[in-house]
From TrEMBL:
One of its GO terms (cellular component) is sulfite reductase complex (NADPH). It is an enzyme of class 1 (oxidoreductase). It comes from the Eukaryota. Residues 755-907 form the Flavodoxin-like domain. GO terms for biological process: cysteine biosynthetic process; sulfate assimilation. It comes from Fibroporia radiculosa. This is assimilatory sulfite reductase (NADPH). Keywords: 4Fe-4S, Amino-acid biosynthesis, Cysteine biosynthesis, Heme, Iron, Iron-sulfur, Metal-binding, NADP, Oxidoreductase. GO terms for molecular function: 4 iron, 4 sulfur cluster binding; FMN binding; heme binding; metal ion binding; NADP binding; sulfite reductase (ferredoxin) activity; sulfite reductase (NADPH) activity. It catalyses: hydrogen sulfide + 3 NADP(+) + 3 H2O = sulfite + 3 NADPH + 4 H(+). The keyword NADP applies. Belongs to the nitrite and sulfite reductase 4Fe-4S domain family. NCBIfam families: CysI (TIGR02041), PRK13504.1 (NF010029). Its EC number is 1.8.1.2.
């Protein structure tokens, strides 16, 4: 082949632009056209570079990689000092060359390489191999003409250099008549090394988007930007357009031809447009749809792809998929057209194609459309594969054509080496059973055993034989070759095989000669056996290079059963298993089994030394090829799970594509490869490559287990030093040991009696019990598995011999969320009067709380879920092995008391009670382990943020992110729906800002407003800790959001977690000077108690790498365990107790001297709100006053109190870890003495103070300095726009002009402060315009507050923020009826007993228990000085109203002057006062006539 202008152009650019060049030779007798072109260049260029030639079929990928490795240490200098070494590779397209690149692409892809691949002329112009490569590379550029080839070669070189990625440039060799204009040699290097062009990229809709400013949405967006920048640079160099997509022809066409092939650009057909793609990857769907005008009715995708192994071609699938996502009124019909010899296609051919398209199907027939002459050997359906033809000829077995895609691929890759060991072609010789994988495996094993026996006999023969020297030598050499062969690299196997075959032939000839001469018998029994097995010599040689596959397919081979698979894996045979799964994603429920084919992968991976891949040909063609080649190369068993969802042979492309996409995207069918050989190679490569974005939960858990050792290293600093110091090598060894152990365990488990443990659990308690039960079962030798109920199907349960059920109970006897689908299925079966569980033995353990529903009429709710389940199982025929176990929170040891009775009975019933369990149960991982293992709050947060396969972070990291001010949550409104779809919960994060005293400037407010819009759910919340909270921030936005918060000079460090949290301060609008002093004090306390770890800055602000310097961190106050629990500090300025000082761990009550100067603080300690329903070890506590300290002492007093708590707090039980419990355990006096000892002085006696309220001072106030302050009412702190209440907009507009500050209150409202008199009119006008100055609410509403609860708070049991305003609507009517419209009654609500809105200090409070159901509390002090108490344990709205109506009426009639509601209900005998936290449960349930009988504690 001579060097055409295209070849010359590409060779010249490659030569001048690269630092090294490789060129593959063509198949003999042809000569690569690049040879001549490159030779000519090297003789003329000033600085010749070496061109390395690779023989045809050589491993070009390996050579390119090794060149990159060699050159990485060299610097080949560039004009601007950059040292990116560009490698160019030139080759003709040929599958033998290109397929060998595939295994290396994952590594090669991150090197600056251009693969210039030339397409020969018809009939060798098939683009199939190119498209395989394209699938595995980030960039693919296609050139039709010589000029395109020249221009795109430049573009590709620049792109590879700037992006340091591999670029595939495909071009047609073309003809000698073509012409191309070449760029000057001198211009090339400056162009290549010029800075990346900064441009405003226009997105496909024409909207300008600045690349530098815009946030790159994802990887493909970044790739598109990179291409656009390189294209712009190239266009400005060449002064010619360089376009990704070119459209010609009609303006509003009816037909659009997408062409991938060298079709002439002069073709002009009426009503038709021709779209030529130059950029084949990244090819965004919008780029495709932008090329299809709305007038288009037919889309013809013409591809020069005739050797494609699957039914639909790549561009066709992309067009179909792009249109599917495009919301068009009328969808055009898309047809795939096989493009033949494109160079001969005329306008008339296209016209006739268009006519055929619009008339086809009228006679009921649908034919494959073609354009241009096709090669004679290829029919309209493409090449019929011989394997497929063989299968088709088998009478008894029909292979669905879709499934043939995979077997065809095998043939393409391995050709003559391929052996499908259970091919239906064997049906002729061995009946249909020969397609059974088990049968085949037995046959293979037999072959292998026979060869091993032969080897043994030969060794015996060699040791004792009297054969002459020739045969003896031949046999010795044969053995030597076989031994050596196993160590010889795969590339050399052909030579070894030839050598072995040669020996085999000579040995057989020699043996036959001896036998003919009658000398065999005298040589002994071994000689006779060797002679009889002589046929095996050749078979053994043949096996060396065979690619042997067993195919498991629902359609044509019996599926590989669990035992078959186990034997295949355990055999260690070098055999590849291809398991096809055709279950469509949308029908997985109907077909589904939790032991589906996906789980086979996990099982195989657990084995340690098995190659495993999960592939889907319609998701990634290249990945399938890669997996098949790796499986073939792996020296042991390989399992490839292949997905091809279809319902019938008539399933359309769109159906299969959609199903594949859904399955892969949802993580139902993750694409991955697990290659243990990489570990053995010691290459440092990861064994596991995830090829799809989503990852299945089970798979994630497997990987988590793999990472477990590194977690342990962090968690246990005492671990051997070598393991700590050399994670790399040591971990590999450890992992192999672990794999061996897992293997042994699996072997045991497979033979052990099976036991299934199922759980339903909302809070995780029942789940823990179930997992512990399964673990203990394993220790007793049972093959136990554990799962959430909703992850299994009733049909599968019916197959299990023993199932143990553990369930907690939710709400009013309902099932926990993850058991509801199962219960539905059970109920449905009961309704149908079925008895599917007759073969199943079962027992249920139920966990509940007898006191949760204390009224006699509600008693049946106790453990209702478990009781119902027990009864259902019995009605479905299951046999109860032991009676229902009941765990009660109220028992001495909680549910453990009941459990301890139930579990031994289980072991007895299963006959394993006598088994001695020697191994200690592993210690559960607690928050304390997580903290100490986290390297000062790092954990694996950084890695988790980079993991795009899930919207969540690792569970341990979610504990650590709290210290960074971040909580992981999920949208609870749609949790069930997502679970039903098989999708993970809709994870998002809450971010809380650290903002001592709640003060921020207007510019900071504006940034908060923007952050809520850009990263959150569009609203934000002022919290009870006087700060901002953003909800709905998805993982990808976490880091940008935190960075934006820091840009506003605020941060989120320690806003949550076991550290001192945001310090809160009375808002006191009128006392300007005092506020300034206490605010400054609060900031000092906050800064002083701030964690010192640098993890925050590393992870979120990219200040330095997370690894490396981590160990330099020290936490002088906290140490590596931090505090046992959260820690809260507040500063109050009497008479306002708006911060609820007594709810805080430490409080400072400002004491003012004679000159109205701050002189110091009364110090309080031991306040706290959180409670657990029904757990009397938990209670709220109001703080004690310890004494007085000066301003200067205050910071250290806070520190010492915190340190006493750090060292004395309960780290065993987080529910008992807060300072309030520590103080009660130590005693207040002992605690105070310890604090004073650490201080080195005694606190002074407390000074007099008086509070008169804990609600906010709404409205206008004038400070001492004459500045104006306005306190707005923002209901429950939610900053949002609602119809008629556009408060978010209002505050944004105010922030734009405001010169003072904003101050949040701890009651979730907002002050606009420090308004100069001259600015007053403007601010007032804005307040009025948006009705933010409206304070005409009832006293009840103004005194109310609620926590967030649903939908974001993961702990919420009932509504709060969304419900309290509705309840107040009703209660305020009662107040108004009784003339109490303006009377303040402090009413608070929380969605759970954690108490975020401080409900236990309210006069009346509601604490969520279940949806629509609350505990009602009464009797708190009006200014937060006294705890309230439970009045009714379970009330719903009608009951609340029924209780409050007479109570409020009586209050209105009988209250004394100035008497508050909380005091009144005590005086009137509704409830007893709470004297201290420990006495909180005493006398709960009302007093006297108001006592709820069942509520007595
Ligand atoms: S009180 Fe409970 S439901 Fe409300 S925000 Fe706090 S944790 Fe969530």
């Amino acid at each position: 082949m001579s060097a055409s202008p295209s070849v010359q152009a590409v060779a010249r650019v490659a030569y001048l632009a690269s630092d090294s060049i490789f060129s593959s030779d063509a198949a003999l007798p042809s000569i690569s056209p690049f040879v001549t072109a490159l030779n000519a260049l090297s003789s003329t260029a000033h600085a010749p570079i070496s061109v390395q030639r690779i023989p045809f079929g050589g491993d070009s990928g390996a050579m390119l990689l090794s060149s990159h490795r060699d050159r990485s240490s060299l610097s080949l200098g560039s004009p601007n000092g950059t040292t990116v070494n560009l490698t160019s590779y030139l080759t003709l397209s040929h599958s033998h060359i290109l397929h060998h690149l595939l295994p290396h692409l994952p590594e090669l892809v991150y090197t600056p390489t251009v693969l210039h691949v030339a397409i020969s002329t018809f009939p060798e112009d098939d683009l199939a191999d190119i498209l395989v490569l394209r699938a595995a590379l980030p960039f693919c550029i296609y050139s039709r003409s010589a000029q395109d080839a020249h221009d795109n070669a430049l573009l590709a070189s620049r792109l590879a250099r700037t992006e340091r990625r591999t670029v595939l440039h495909v071009f047609h060799v073309g003809t000698a008549e073509e012409h191309a204009e070449f760029i000057d040699e001198e211009s090339i290097k400056p162009y290549l090394f010029a800075e990346r062009v900064s441009l405003n990229r226009f997105n496909e809709t024409g909207e300008a988007k600045s690349v530098s400013a815009a946030k790159v949405e994802d990887e493909s967006d970044a790739l598109v930007s990179a291409y656009d920048a390189a294209a712009l640079a190239t266009a400005s160099l060449l002064q010619r357009p360089v376009q990704a997509v070119t459209t010609s022809g009609a303006y509003a066409p009816r037909t659009v031809l997408f062409t991938l092939g060298s079709l002439s650009s002069d073709i002009n057909v009426e009503d038709t447009a021709i779209v030529e793609l130059s950029l084949l990857k990244p090819l965004s769907p919008t780029r495709i749809t932008a090329a299809i005008p709305s007038s288009a009715r037919y889309i013809l995708v013409c591809e020069q792809v005739r050797r494609w192994s699957i039914k639909w071609t790549p561009l066709y699938l992309e067009v179909v998929s792009a249109l599917q996502a495009d919301n068009r009124d009328e969808q055009p019909r898309v047809r795939s057209v096989l493009l033949g010899d494109a160079t001969t296609v005329t306008a008339e051919d296209v016209r006739s194609l268009v006519v055929r398209t619009s008339t086809e199907g009228q006679d009921g027939k649908k034919v494959r459309l073609t354009l241009g002459a096709l090669p004679l050997t290829e029919g309209a359906h493409g090449t019929i594969r011989s394997e497929e033809a063989k299968f088709a000829s088998a009478q008894h077995v029909h292979i669905p054509r879709h499934e043939a895609s995979y077997t065809t691929l095998l043939e393409t890759l391995f050709g003559a080496r391929l052996e499908i060991a259970n091919s239906p072609s064997h049906v002729y010789d061995a009946a249909i059973v020969s397609t059974s994988p088990e049968f085949t495996l037995g046959r293979i094993r037999g072959e292998e055993d026979a060869i091993q026996t032969l080897e043994r006999d030969i060794k015996v023969l060699l040791s004792e034989s009297t054969f002459d020297g020739t045969l003896h030598r031949l046999l010795s050499e044969w053995i030597a070759v076989r031994n050596a062969g196993s160590r010889i690299a795969s590339g050399k196997t052909k030579d070894v095989r030839e050598l072995e075959t040669n020996f085999a032939d000579r040995i057989v000839a020699a043996l036959e000669e001896i036998e003919a001469q009658g000398g065999l018998k005298s040589a002994g029994a071994a000689a006779v056996r060797v002679y009889q097995a002589r046929a095996l010599f050749r078979a053994a040689a043949a096996l060396r290079t065979r690619s042997r596959w067993i195919v498991g397919s629902d359609a044509w081979a019996y599926d590989l059963g669990a035992s078959g698979l186990h034997h295949a894996i355990a055999s260690g045979l070098d055999v590849n298993i291809l398991l096809l799964d055709s279950t469509p994603y949308s029908r997985r429920q109907a077909h589904g089994s939790r032991r589906g084919k996906q789980d086979v992968g996990l099982y195989a991976m657990n084995h340690g030394d098995v190659y495993v891949a999960s592939v889907a040909v319609y998701a990634s063609y290249a990945q399938v090829l890669q997996a098949l080649m790796e499986a073939d190369a792996f020296p042991g068993p390989s399992v490839v799970l292949a997905y091809l969802p279809y319902t019938s042979e008539e399933s359309t492309a769109l159906e299969i594509l959609k199903e594949t996409k859904m399955a892969v995207d949802a993580g139902y069918w993750p694409l991955y490869r697990w290659n243990p050989a990489k570990d053995h190679e010691g290459s440092g490569n990861e064994c596991f490559s995830l090829d799809s974005d989503a990852i299945k939960n089970e798979l994630q858990r497997f990987l988590d287990r793999q990472n477990h050792l590194s977690q342990l290293v962090r968690a246990r600093p005492r671990m051997p030093a070598e393991l700590v110091s050399g994670l790399g090598e040591q971990l590999k060894v450890a992992r192999r040991a672990r794999a061996r152990k897992a293997y042994e365990e699996l072997l045991t488990a497979i033979d052990a009696p099976p036991l299934t443990v199922l759980y339903a659990s909302d809070g995780g308690k029942a789940e823990k019990v179930a997992k512990r039960l399964a673990m203990r079962a394993k220790m007793r030798g049972l093959s136990a598995s554990v799962a959430a109920m909703d992850t299994v199907k009733l049909e599968d349960i019916a197959k299990e011999p023993i199932v143990l059920w553990v369930t907690s109970v939710a709400g009013q006897g309902e099932f926990p969320q993850n058991g509801r689908a199962m219960v539905k299925a059970l109920n449905a079966a009961v309704a149908r009067k079925e008895r599917p569980l007759e073969a199943v033995k079962f027992s249920v353990f139920a966990m509940g709380d007898t006191h949760y529903w204390p009224r006699p009429e509600d008693a049946h709710y106790y453990n209702k879920a478990g009781k119902d389940l027990d009864a259902r199982l019995e009605s479905l025929g299951a046999q109860r092995v032991i009676p229902l176990g009941l765990g009660d929170d109220q028992d001495a040891d909680g549910p453990e008391t009941g459990y301890r009775l139930w579990e031994p009975q289980v072991w007895k019933a299963l006959g394993v009670d006598e088994i001695q369990v020697q191994e200690a149960e592993p210690e559960p991982i607690t928050n304390e382990h997580i903290k100490v293992a986290s390297q000062y709050l790092r954990g694996t947060i950084k890695e988790g943020l980079e993991d795009t396969s899930t919207g969540a972070l690792a569970p341990s990291d979610t504990q650590l992110t709290k210290f960074h001010g971040i909580y992981q949550q999920d949208d609870r409104d749609i949790r069930d729906e997502r679970a039903a779809q098989g999708a993970e919960p809709a994870y998002s994060f809450m971010i809380r800002v650290r903002m001592p005293g709640g003060v921020c400037r207007p510019d900071q407010w504006l940034l908060m407003d923007q952050i809520a819009d850009e990263h959150g759910c569009g609203t934000f919340k002022i919290t009870t800790r006087q700060t901002f909270q953003f909800h709905g921030v998805i993982k990808g936005h976490l880091k940008p959001a935190i960075q934006d918060i820091n840009r506003a000079l605020l941060d989120t460090l320690a806003a949550c977690g076991d550290v001192n949290r945001n310090v809160i301060v009375s808002a006191i609008p009128s006392l300007t000077k005092l506020h300034a002093q206490v605010y400054a004090f609060a900031k000092r306390v906050s800064e002083h108690l701030l964690p010192r770890t640098t993890a925050y800055h590393e992870i979120w602000l990219d200040k330095k790498l997370v690894a490396g310097d981590a160990l330099k961190d020290i936490e002088p106050l906290y140490g590596e365990f931090y505090l046992p629990r959260k820690f809260k500090v507040a500063v109050a300025v009497p008479p306002t107790n708006d911060v609820d000082i007594f709810a805080n761990d430490v409080g400072f009550i400002a004491i003012v001297g004679e000159n109205d100067e701050l002189v110091g603080f009364n110090v309080t300690a031991g306040g706290g709100m959180g409670v657990t329903h029904g757990n009397k070890k938990t209670y709220p506590r109001a703080a004690d006053v310890l004494g007085f300290c000066t301003i200067e002492q205050g910071v250290y007093v806070a520190e010492k109190i915190m340190l006493v708590q750090r060292d004395n707090g309960n780290r065993e039980d987080r529910k008992n870890a807060r300072l309030k419990y520590t103080m009660d355990r130590m005693g207040v006096d002992v605690f105070k003495a310890e604090v004073e000892e650490r201080l080195g002085y005694k606190l002074q006696p407390a000074r007099p103070y008086a509070f008169d309220r804990n609600i906010d001072d709404y409205g206008w106030h004038i400070g001492e300095d004459g500045k104006h302050h306005f306190t707005c009412f923002i209901e429950n702190g939610r900053i949002q726009d609602e119809p008629g209440k556009e408060f978010k907009t209002a505050l944004r507009e105010i922030a734009k002009v405001h010169k003072g500050a904003f101050r949040c209150t701890a009651n979730q409202h907002l002050l606009i402060t420090d308004i100069a008199t001259e600015d007053l009119p403007q601010i007032k006008a804005l307040l009025a315009r948006y009705k933010l100055d409206n304070l005409s609410y009832t006293g009840l509403r103004l005194s109310s507050s609620a926590c967030v609860a649903f939908p974001t708070c993961g702990l919420a049991m009932a509504e709060s923020e969304r419900y309290l305003p509705i309840l107040i609507d009703k209660v305020e009517t009662i107040c108004e009826e009784n003339g109490l419209r303006n009377d303040s009654i402090v009413m608070r609500m929380t969605g759970c007993p954690n108490g975020c809105a401080r409900p236990y200090l309210a006069e009346v409070a509601f604490v969520g228990k279940a949806p629509g159901t609350y505990s009602m509390l009464l009797g708190g002090g009006y200014h937060g000085e006294r705890l309230n108490k439970i009045y009714r344990e379970t009330v719903t709205e009608p009951e609340i109203l029924a209780i409050l109506r007479p109570m409020i009426k009586q209050y209105a009639l009988e209250r004394r002057e100035g008497e508050h509601f909380g005091d009144f209900v005590i005086r009137a005998g509704y409830i007893a006062p709470t004297t201290e936290g420990k006495a909180w449960y005493d006398k709960m349930g009302g007093e006297g006539q108001h006592r709820e009988v069942s509520g007595s504690a």
